[in-house]
């Protein structure tokens, strides 16, 4: 009887699955159609909002000559390096603060003050310190992704129930055993949620650094296109930034799905 009910529910589940896949595509097509309509009616000057065909032409040209891939590769390198460094520091310091309230009292004013300052305010200073190469952009990216990882790590570790900690103490578990079998599995969902946020912020850090001073990267490509009033190329660069952020976010979401498989099985 139960198998028959599962078979009857299968078409509905497949339909919902395909609906989740097709809904974003339908939204994108709708926005492109609206964009084309505005361009066709000339409601906005083509200099400000070029038609989709012009943007597609700029995309095709930049792909053909390899300029877009070269700049995108530079930005991606800065994003990945900065993300890894910022997440590593955020995890380490977040865990230390979660375990030592005194450390939080000492460092919180400095961390909050530093993060409350817009990244564009001290990005030029980072360029002066680390030069105009990729190092300054990596540091900028690491700083901007550091805070979400730090906060989520603290929240995840401190969100553990006290009775579970008491249970591990009663079993005389070592610090490593407590971390591996209790703290890490319990805090992992919150930490991965922070990593999702950090992955989308990574492109902001890299591009802000490129806006200040860079020869290569999507930020440099935007500045060069803007100076020529090449609006289609500016849009292509912005869309490429979005694609990089979405790809990185999707990668983290996939990792989360794989890592958290045990939780889905336990709640099934």
Write the layout of secondary structure elements.
Layout: H1 2-40, H2 52-64, H3 67-99, H4 101-116, H5 119-130, H6 134-158, H7 162-170, H8 175-212, H9 218-227, H10 231-259, H11 261-267
Corresponding CATH superfamily of the largest domain: MetI-like
Determine the mean pLDDT: 83
Query: What structural class is derived from the secondary structure elements?
Result: mainly alpha
Determine the number of helices (DSSP H or I, runs of at least 4 residues): 11
How would you characterize the overall build of this protein?
There is one protein chain. The protein has about 270 residues and is mainly α. The chain folds into two domains: about 1-50; about 50-265, MetI-like fold (Orthogonal Bundle), CATH 1.10.3720. The protein is built from eleven helices and no strands. The protein has helices spanning about 1-40, 50-65, 65-100, 100-115, 120-130, 135-160, 160-170, 175-210, 220-225, 230-260, 260-265. Helix 3 packs antiparallel against helix 8 (about 175-210), helix 8 (about 175-210) runs parallel beside helix 9 (about 220-225) and helix 8 (about 175-210) packs antiparallel against helix 10 (about 230-260). The longest helix has about 40 residues, at about 1-40. The two termini are about 20 Å apart.
